[in-house]
Amino acid sequence: MRWIYEAAASAIVKSFKKKRMRENLDIFEWELSQEESDKISKIPQSRLYKAEFYVSENGVYKSLEEF
């Protein structure tokens, strides 16, 4: 959560447990080191689905043009 905050990105979190919600908000009193940030940045990210994900000859969209 802290890395997302430092990257000025958004996260969608889902928790109904008060303890976990507090943990999710407990990111403002500390910072990641440059080494930690660099390590996390190297993790492959998948932030959005591309249109190709929805295209299939058996699906609703048969081509990118239809999508």
Automatic annotation (TrEMBL):
GO molecular-function terms, A-Z: oxidoreductase activity
InterPro entries noted in UniProt: Aldo/ket_reductase_CS (IPR018170), NAD(P)_OxRdtase_dom_sf (IPR036812)
Name of protein: NADP-dependent oxidoreductase domain-containing protein
Organism placement in taxonomy: Eukaryota, Viridiplantae, Streptophyta, Embryophyta, Tracheophyta
